[in-house]
Amino acid sequence: MDRMVTVSRISGRTGLTLIVWMTFLGGISPIHSQQESAGPTIRTEQGVLDGITVAAVDQFRGIPYASPPVGELRWTLPLAPNPYPRGSRDATAFPAPCMQNNSPEGLPPPSEDCLYLNVYRPARRSSQSPMPVLVYVHGGGFAGGSGSARDGSPLAGAHDMVVVMINYRLGVFGWLGLPGLDAESADHASSGNYGLADMAEALRWLQKNIAAFGGDPNNVTLAGTSAGGIGVCALITAPEGERLFHRAIIESGECTNTSGYIIGHQAALQQGAAVAAKAGCGSAAAFVPCLRSKTAAALQAASAGNGTFTANVGGHLMPRAPIEAIASAAIRSRSQGSLPRAPPTRST
Fold first, then answer.
1. I need a labelling partner for 91 at 20 to 30 A (CA). Which of 56, 184, 282, 297 fits?
2. Position 51 in a domain
3. Long-range CB contacts (< 8 A, 24+ apart) of 274-280?
4. What pLDDT is attached to residue 343?
5. 147: number of Cβ within 10 Å
6. Which has the minimum average pLDDT: 68-77, 210-219, 317-326?
7. Eight-class DSSP state of 258
8. Domain limits for position 242
9. Three-class SS of residue 53?
10. Nearest-angstrom CA–CA distance, 313 and 186
11. Which residues of 104-136 are buried (b: 16+ CB within 10 A; e: fewer)?
12. Is the dihedral of CA 77, 13, 248, 44 positive or negative?
């Protein structure tokens, strides 16, 4: 389905345009196989990417936009990616989805090392002027899905635009709240929204690098379906942030006070404590190091039966329910300030 059902537009001092309640993003279709050929190369801040051309669309798959959130970086704000080994990276294979119970068909097994994105652009352009950019955030209840599960080629090829699909941390890996994790943050009340921080970091990487793909960093639309739509809503209502995007599309995202996918911070902390107890972590003071020492499979098992791990209200990314910020016209300018981010370096 590719037509708008109901459209509501909110414009304000920010210059941000919000379009809500569409059905599906027309032209974004499931992954499919087409004739592939050797593609172009692109230079990013981390080095050279070697892509692939599929039909009339250049694809750059599995681009790291952050360092792997593993080991001591589990449940931390995302760090910038490392330079590519030997100065270049093969970008012809789709990355692993983030950890989840299901394995999306046709993709590698889920992994904690999953902070990657895919870029699609027309191989033959009708104009050499910078192209608009669409960044898509997949749905899946913050527990499943992958940025690789849909193909951005139809939109990119037919409309002279750059289409970007992103991964972000899911389930207990992306949304765990604990007092010990709060204590590691600057405002002491922000754990549990690591998936949202991933979305912001992907946008930050794109601002620095999308021009190399022919995209316009000043014409970025952020779109998301279901849980992805909730993520979009959260980012447009974050109290401070860089101008990382300029328009937003929310599709079937329950960005409301009654949504089961936006919970209070105390609820997130109680859920986190239940996970720690089930994982055999004895004392609250030891919850964080104990859980960081567990395998991904053990954490998946400990999170089972403990409810939905999801976005929570509290801390710097979502200090208030997004719908309340919209209703009170409290969406502030993104021309100054910055979204929460990790320090430049971190010992591991």
1. 297
2. yes
3. 274/306, 275/172, 275/176, 275/299, 275/302, 275/303, 275/306, 276/178, 276/302, 278/302, 278/305, 278/306
4. 53
5. 26
6. 317-326
7. T
8. 8-177+192-258+321-327
9. strand
10. 16
11. beebbebebebbbbbbbbbbeeeeeebbbbbbb
12. negative
Question: Contact at 8 Å (CB) between 75 and 288?
Answer: yes
Residue 188 to residue 184: CA distance in whole angstroms: 7
Is residue 1's pLDDT more than 80? no
How wide is the angle at C-alpha 317 spanned by C-alphas 323 and 249, nearest 5°?
A: 50
Q: Residue 77: is its pLDDT beyond 60? A: yes
Tell me whether residue 29 is in a domain.
Answer: yes
Q: Which residue has the higher pLDDT, 255 or 271?
A: 271
Query: In this structure, is residue 333 part of a structural domain?
Result: no
The CATH number assigned to the domain holding 79 equals 3.40.50.1820
Q: What is the mean pLDDT of the chain?
A: 86
For residue 283 the two structure tokens come to: 């004392």
Q: What percentage of residues in the chain have a pLDDT greater than 70?
A: 82
Structural domains in the chain (count): 1
Distance CA 97, CA 90 (A): 18
First to last CA, the chain: 47
Element (H, E) at 173: helix 171-175
Query: Helix H segments across 245-295?
Result: 265-278, 287-293
Confirm if 234 and 314 have CB atoms less than 8 A apart.
no
Place of tokens 């389930």: 171
> DSSP letters along 290-314, please?
HHHHS-HHHHHHHHTTS----EEE-
Report the pLDDT value the prediction gives residue 331, as an integer from 0 to 100: 67
Does a structural domain hold residue 217? yes
Residue 115 neighbours by CB under 8 Å, 6+ apart? 64, 65, 66, 67, 68, 69, 78, 98, 167, 168, 169, 198, 201, 202
